[in-house]
Each structure stands twice: as structure tokens, then as C-alpha cells.
Recover the amino acids of this structure.
């Protein structure tokens, strides 16, 4: 849950004067997204999500994200279209923080995706990759492979505290990833955080929408697939569900067939993707004060995924 | 903000099978109410609030509250109508906890009510008192005057910790309240927690709805007015805004004129109402562990209101 910024009715009214949305009819803080404050806003014109950008999202990156959402919506992709102010800007500010209004998207996220959900999610991801083609915005992946060793060097002690001996294992992983990391894959605009809580389904189980694009960047499409495999296809007991993974890849390839080099790269990409989430969770774990309002996610969940990938996945027989 | 219970998509679907509301289209935890978990639920039939009842609300009291909401809605009062299950029950259960679905009510609560808001709120309260007449449900006010001394005896030390010497002042207040408490006032079903965050306004500033009836009980109507005066008519600096108070009473009397004995009783009722909220905040303050997710409200805010009422209000010249 996340509502870090408290907006009064007077602040809301003043903010909405900048938009052509009519008067507010309802306004409720919602428990969605962990990085920003989100509000359900209903006005005379329709329903929207108002986001106040808090920590981690850099203000200078916001035009990249908001322009991407407009680009995707213009191409029919079901992401939330940003609503421009009267002066045509999609980025505004509220309480001195960056803020934006986007369309409300119906749909429900699923907690325990089935193979059928994975197939739909995979197709939605490929659709996103195709819809994003030609988007002129550029943003390097600041959590990409080159960032991992420097990031780990700052949190080595936290890793040892979690599990004695872990830092040597991670060092070894990082060396192998550096050596084996593929650099010749098709790249483009990727979501980079396509987790189940960022994907909505219709009540009939069909893909409905993707949200929370605030890690989007330029990187290999197949890396986005690898992040998604890690996020959707592990069981609670840490085992990898190959049926779900094949369904996800099958759904993806309905829209965008993977090339042979992408398929070959997937196991190492999945290992790297597990490293990326292990490292950022480790960093959050170490830097979260005891008793903080937001409980950090368990880094060891991704350490276990790393261990599975160390063995090497066989995704394509 | 309050979402204590995490509901998965599968749990939601199973729960909704008990209702004739169609498939779920959207479901979001919302930051509303501090005692229960609330979710915005959109289905094929419309928009609703799903409440999972957590601490403080007694399960055996829920039929009283839900039947009251049905009673009020049947009489045209703008409170949220409970939605019955297929078998006709308004009370259901989810994750082993009591749960109910009620209509979604549009409207916005105001943070800093103006005198105009106070007038509207006062009228809405009188409307509630009239609409509740004849409701057959009975519930004693377990936070009424008789409960205050026993409650304070358990939290005397917390009062001294907050402000040395405070416990003797409160003892004196309690003795005076016991002596002067009026017992011959018109009584009926009251809201008992009619605070600004429990009242919605339309965008034109008109009263829209009242929510959160989970302190409702049988007590003097004028006591409900006194609770409301305390909640709406104090400035942030602790001063009592007599203009706002007169507007509130004026709005109330548009619908239900106060009798001479009710008017005469208001100052002592307001002092007692300040005591009631001081005491429950004191109890929450003492029993909340350091680092808890919910920050208790400041008891001293109501201690300052008590001090104002100790001087005696002149509401009717």
C-alpha cells in the first residue's frame, strides 16, 4: 500500500483547475504501487488515477515515461493514457512534487498466476514490445548488467548478514554474468518490471492492461521476457514451473516470435534478471530502518531464483 | 489509510459467487477508515465498497450497523446501502473475517471545513436523526458517560506521562460530568463519530453522504450534535470557531429544531464529548507499540478541547 502524500480537498481543487476535467466527484487514496502515491479520482469527465511521484523515480525521467504512455495509447496498447493539462503538459506538480493524471484502467491483477494467465501475460508483453517500436524517447537501463557489480559492492555486508558465504557466491555469479552476458540481441523499449501486480486481466482471464512503467528503459526485449519468467513462473516453494514458462513464451511468440539467438540467451538473461532483483531487494533490505512503514521485499526469494538459474534452464527442448 | 487484510483475486471471485453482482472488473484497496479494510470493487453490476471488519468492531454488532444502513437507505438517506448475498444476508465473511459489500457513494470529504460546510454537515446530521427514527435495532453507547471513569482508571498513568498533573484534572472533570450529565434528553439512533472524514460533499459544497456508522448507538441526539461541534468547529490552533458552530447548529435546525433543554445541555454535552474522544485516544496512545503501522491520534488535541469546554461555551445568546 502506498499513500505517502496527503492531498486536501482544497489542494485537489486547485490542482484540477489546470485540467479540463470538470469538478471532482470522488477521490480516494489507493493501495497500488510501492514507489508513488496513487489516488482514484472521479470527475465530471470520467475516472482517472492521480499519481504523485515520490522517491526513486527521477523527475527528469518523467517525460520519458509519460510520453511513452501517450505513445503506447496512441497505438492502441492498453496502458493508461496521460491526461494533458490545459496547456498541453502531461507532467504537472502537486504539493511541490511531480504529479500526473492518467486514465483509469479496469482489470484485476492475479496473485497466483495460472499457466493460462502466463500465456496472456506473455502475449501482452510482446504486444508492448511491438507497440513501443519507434518510440523516440531514450533511457539507459540504470539497473542493467553493468550496474550490478558496483551495486553489490555497496551491500556485500548485508548479503553476508542474510546468509554467511553468500557474498562469494554472488561475486562468482557476477563474474560469470559479465563473461557470458549477451550483447547482440534485438533491443528496444522494455517494461523491465512486468510483475503480476503490474498486469491487469479481464474477468474472463484475458489480458487487459499493463501499468507502472516507471522502470521502463532501453534494453534487450528478451531480457524483459526473462524478468517476466522470473516474476510469473516460480512456485511459492521456489521451484520453477516449466509449464507456466512455456505458456508464457508461447503467448509471447503469438505476437513476436523470438529469434534463435534470443532463445539461446534466455537462460543467462533469466539468471541476470534474478541477480538484478536480488541486488535491489538487498539494497532496500539494508537501507530500511527497523519499524519503517514499508516492509522491504525478501532478497532471499530472488537468491533462491538465482540458485535455480545457476543450474541452467532448459526452456526449448 | 487502512488495508489490513490482503484479498487475492481467487478469494474475491469465490466471495463474489455469493452475490448477484456479476464478475469483478476492478478491485483496489483504499485508504479510508482506520478500523477496517476497505476495497473499491467494480463489477458488471456497478461500483461498491467491500469492507472486511477488523479490530474494535464487534461481530455481534454488525447486524445492527448493516440493518441500520439498509433502514436509512430505504428512507432516502444518503448512506451506503448494503448489498445482500444471494441468500439475502447483508453480513458475509471473507478470510474468516466478517465482511460486507455496500454501495459506492460519490463525494469528497473536506479537510478544513468552512462555515458553509458546517451548515451542510449540520443539516445532514439532523436528516440522519430523523431518518433513523423508528429503527428497531438497539445498541447501548458503550463509550457513553457511564464508561468514562472506568476507562480512565486503566489509563491514568498514560495521562500523567503525557502531561504531569493531568490525571487530577481529568478526575475533576469526570466528577463534574457525572454530576451535571443530562439524562432527560430526546434520544434515538445517533452516528456518534460524525467527523469530517465521515461526511462527503458534492463538488458544489452541498452535503452528499455520511459513511462509517460503526460507532452508531442509542443516545441523546444533542450528544451527537456535541460530538460534531467538537469535530468540525475547532481551529488548528485549538480555538473554538463560534461562527462555524452557529452555522452547524443553524443547518441542523433547518431539519430538526433543538428543544430548549437540548440547547441548554449542549455545553456540558460538548465537554463530555471531548472527554470521550480524549479517553479513547489516550487508550490507543498507551496501547500502540512503538513502530506500529498505524499512528495513534494525539490525545492532547482533545485535552485542549476539554480545556475550552471547561470554561463553558455560549452557543445561544
Amino acid at each position: 500500500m502506498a499513500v505517502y502524500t496527503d492531498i486536501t480537498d482544497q489542494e485537489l481543487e486547485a490542482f484540477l483547475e489546470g485540467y479540463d476535467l470538470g469538478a471532482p466527484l470522488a477521490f480516494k487514496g489507493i493501495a497500488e504501487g510501492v514507489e508513488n502515491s496513487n489516488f482514484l479520482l472521479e470527475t465530471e469527465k470520467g475516472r482517472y488515477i492521480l499519481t504523485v511521484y515520490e522517491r526513486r523515480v527521477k523527475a527528469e525521467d518523467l517525460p520519458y515515461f509519460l510520453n511513452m504512455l501517450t505513445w503506447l495509447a496512441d497505438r492502441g496498447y492498453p496502458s493508461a493514457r496521460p491526461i494533458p493539462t490545459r496547456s498541453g503538459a502531461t507532467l504537472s506538480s502537486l504539493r511541490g512534487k511531480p504529479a500526473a493524471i492518467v486514465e483509469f484502467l479496469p482489470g484485476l491483477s492475479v496473485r497466483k498466476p495460472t499457466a493460462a494467465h502466463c500465456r496472456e501475460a506473455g502475449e501482452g508483453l510482446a504486444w508492448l514490445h511491438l507497440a513501443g517500436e519507434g518510440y523516440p524517447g531514450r533511457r539507459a537501463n540504470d539497473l542493467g548488467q553493468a550496474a550490478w557489480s558496483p551495486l553489490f559492492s555497496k551491500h556485500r555486508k548485508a548479503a553476508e548478514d542474510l546468509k554467511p558465504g553468500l557474498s562469494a557466491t554472488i561475486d562468482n555469479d557476477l563474474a560469470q554474468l559479465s563473461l557470458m552476458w549477451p550483447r547482440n540481441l534485438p533491443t528496444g523499449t522494455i517494461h523491465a518490471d512486468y510483475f503480476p501486480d503490474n498486469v491487469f486481466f479481464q474477468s474472463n482471464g484475458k489480458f487487459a492492461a499493463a501499468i507502472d512503467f516507471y522502470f521502463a528503459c532501453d534494453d534487450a526485449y528478451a531480457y524483459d521476457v526473462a524478468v517476466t519468467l522470473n516474476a510469473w513462473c516460480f512456485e511459492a516453494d521456489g521451484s520453477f514451473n516449466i509449464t507456466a514458462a512455456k505458456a508464457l513464451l508461447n503467448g509471447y511468440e503469438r505476437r513476436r516470435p523470438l529469434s534463435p539467438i534470443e532463445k539461446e540467451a534466455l537462460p543467462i538473461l533469466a539468471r541476470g534478471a534474478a541477480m538484478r532483483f536480488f541486488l535491489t531487494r538487498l539494497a532496500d533490505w539494508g537501507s530500511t530502518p527497523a519499524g519503517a512503514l514499508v516492509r522491504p521485499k525478501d532478497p532471499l526469494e530472488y537468491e533462491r531464483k538465482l540458485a535455480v538459474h545457476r543450474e541452467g534452464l532448459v526452456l526449448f527442448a
About this structure: The interface with chain B takes residues 1, 3, 8-10, 12, 23-32, 40, 42, 44, 104, 106-112, 202-204, 290-291, 293 of chain A (CB under 8 Å).
